[in-house]
Amino acid sequence: MAIVPDTKDWTWVLRRRCEECGVEAAREDPASVPGLVRDAVARWQEVLRRPGVAVRPDESTWSPLEYAAHVRDVFTVFEGRLRLMLEQDEPTFPDWDQDAAAVEGNYAGQTPAEVSAQLEAAGDRIAEAFAAVPEERWQRRGVRSNGSEFTVETLAQYFVHDVLHHLHDVRG
């Protein structure tokens, strides 16, 4: 059985606690994002050192390596969205098909050491990007192609949930 694409709209995590991972994204202070990212990167690097990191727990679930490669790409996608929101008035984000990215990027065939280094570099970039947001810009707006609206603040909160939720997925 192949991986089933995730088509859920996860923006509900901005309104209530995620019962799966326990994260309350709306309670996250955007100023805490850089520290959370750096902590998460260290935890991901620990996950990537595990034996069997490339083994899927079942045919329909990504391996921890695949999840780590996904999170690395999440860092890059959200950095791009953050920059758009800071540089343009109410931009619409380009679509990103995470499942297509996993196939095209051959997440399963990547090496843990390379993903670890790339994850750290991308994590540093997104942490620095959020750290550089002036307080008066946290309410700038952007829109996903499906119409979901974000401010820089809620984008940061949504982003934190994504990263921490996937750590929960791999017991990191």
Based on the model shown, name its key terms.
globular; mainly alpha; 172 residues
Task: Explain what this protein looks like in three dimensions.
The chain has 172 residues and is mostly helical. The protein has one domain: Four Helix Bundle (Hemerythrin (Met), subunit A) (Up-down Bundle). Helix content is 49%, strand content 3%. The chain is built from 5 helices and 2 strands. A two-stranded antiparallel sheet has the order 1-2. Strand 1 and strand 2 form a beta hairpin. Helix 1 packs antiparallel against helix 4 and helix 2 packs parallel to helix 4. The longest helix has 24 residues. The protein is globular. The mean pLDDT is 93.
Which sequence of strands runs across the widest sheet? 1-2
Quickly count the domains: 1
What class would the helix/strand composition place it in? mainly alpha
CATH evolutionary superfamily: dinb family like domain
Tell me the helix content: 40-55%
* Content of β-strand: under 5%
Mind telling me the C-alpha Rg? 16 Å
List the helices and strands and how they pair.
Blueprint: H1 33-48, H2 64-87, H3 98-104, H4 112-131, E1 141-143, E2 149-151, H5 152-169
Antiparallel strand pairs: 1-2
Helix pairs in contact: 1-4, 1-5, 2-4, 2-5
Brief summary of the model shown:
The protein is mostly helical. The chain has five helices and two strands, in the order H-H-H-H-E-E-H.
